[in-house]
Amino acid sequence: KQWYQRRVRGTRDMFARDFRKRVMIPLSTYMKCYRIGDIVDIKGCGTVTKGMPYKVNHGKTGRVYNVTKRAVGVIVNKRVKGRILAKKITLRVEHIRHSKCRDD
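Above: the chain sequence. Below: its structure as tokens.
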């Protein structure tokens, strides 16, 4: 239990959901198709604790590199001591959504 408490420390407002939307997740979340190369936004959903992103990845945009039955692999950039590293993370589909950054 300690590792989980460290991981979600200080995220009460970050992963909180709106009132009366705390339990049910719309089925449209599971019906969306993700393909390799898609650009997605990472937004953690507090209802589902499996496959949840770390708080440093919340709000970031990445590119899909792997798709499985319930999860999606995403490449995000992380800044470490002045360098930018490409990190591969695996998230469940409840915690990602298609990005609107390329909509014109």
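The longest strand covers residues 71-80.
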